[in-house]
Amino acid sequence: MKIATYNVNGVNGRLPVLLRWLQEADSDIVCLQELKAPQEKFPYAEIEKAGYHAIWKGQKSWNGVAILAKKNYEITEVQNELPGDEDDLQSRYLEAIIDQMVICCLYLPNGNPYPGPKFDYKINWLKRFKKRTDEMIKMDLPAILTGDFNIIPTPLDVYKPERWEDDALFRPEVRKAFASLIEIGWTDSIRTLFPDEKIYTFWDYLYKSFTRDAGIRLDHLLLSPYLKHRLHSGGVDKHVRGWEKSSDHVPVWIELKD
Q1: What does DSSP assign to residue 216?
Q2: 107, 188, 200, 220: which is the annotated catalytic residue?
Q3: Domain 2-256 belongs to what topology?
Q4: What are the residues whose beta carbons fall under 8 Å from the beta carbon of 116, sequence distance 6 or more?
Q5: Exposed (0-12), middle (13-18) or buried (19+): which is 183, by Cβ within 10 Å?
Q6: Any catalytic annotation for residue 249?
Q7: Nearest alpha carbon to residue 66 among 143, 23, 10
Q8: Nearest 5°: phi and psi at 187?
């Protein structure tokens, strides 16, 4: 089974890129972030024509998450918001069951500028997320946490890390939060497969970042202990970043053994 995550940076504006990649990658499950579309504007007809059905939670202009699956898989929505804050109206979390696995699609807050209320929101969101993921570990669920975490886990995951010390993506607080997920049993699948390689999933549109390979790794797939032994392969579809009108993120994927 092939599972992928992709921050599309506008599902309608970059729909041709998404459809091209869906056909090329042939993933079984795809998690999308940053739809930037209200609920009624999600391009379901085009996604269905590409061979997938989907659940999604949109938001006008900002945020938005979706889970796609090939039509031979049933999608059962569990929840479309992260528990713990009834006042949080941002569309950043979607949880479903597919093929007896819990799929958690997330678009974690950016948190910039640091310090400030946006960073405080990010830290509080992480605390709520940790509580939910701890529950999955305690229940020994077959679960995958995937999406744009907006966290650079280690200096290996960023071009010139010294320039990012006061950025909300690389602050010690958020790196510690990511590390705490690993410590409790979640497996960073891409880093497990490629422990020493330079791997990026995002390149800014400015300063010829992609040409210079001045990137960062923000998009992750974390496996619960129940699933980690099924990890077979994975990768980053870096070439997609070079397509016309592509997102500043690229798809990341893994394959699980049956």
Answers
A1: B
A2: 107
A3: Deoxyribonuclease I; Chain A (3.60.10)
A4: none
A5: exposed
A6: yes
A7: 10
A8: -105, 120
Strand order in the sheet with 75-79: 75-79, 93-98, 101-107, 143-148, 219-223, 187-188
Domain locations in the chain?
Answer: 2-256
Closest residue by Cα to residue 150 from 183, 117, 116, 173: 173
Per the annotation, does 249 bind a ligand?
Answer: yes
Can you give the pLDDT at residue 19?
98
Which tokens is 225 given? 């202990």
Q: What is the b/e burial string over 154-173, where b = at least 16 CB atoms within 10 angstroms of the residue's CB?
A: eeebbeeeeebeebbbbbee
Among 6, 52, 219, 249, the one annotated catalytic: 249
At 129 the three-state DSSP class reads helix
What is the per-residue pLDDT for 8? Answer: 98
State mean pLDDT over 233-253.
98
DSSP state of 250: -
Phi, psi of 137 (to 5 degrees): -65, -45
132-167 tens-digit pLDDT = 999 999 999 999 999 999 999 999 999 999 999 999
Q: Is 72 annotated as a binding residue?
A: no
141: which DSSP letter?
-
Tell whether 34 is in a known binding site.
yes
Is there a binding annotation on residue 7? yes
- Tokens 């679960």 locate to 143
150 is in an annotated binding site: yes
Kindly name the residue from 148, 157, 188, 219 that is annotated as catalytic.
148
> For this structure, is 148 an active site residue?
yes
Tens digits of residue pLDDT in 69-110: 999 999 999 999 999 999 999 999 999 999 999 999 999 999
Q: Are 109 and 121 in contact (CB under 8 A)?
A: yes
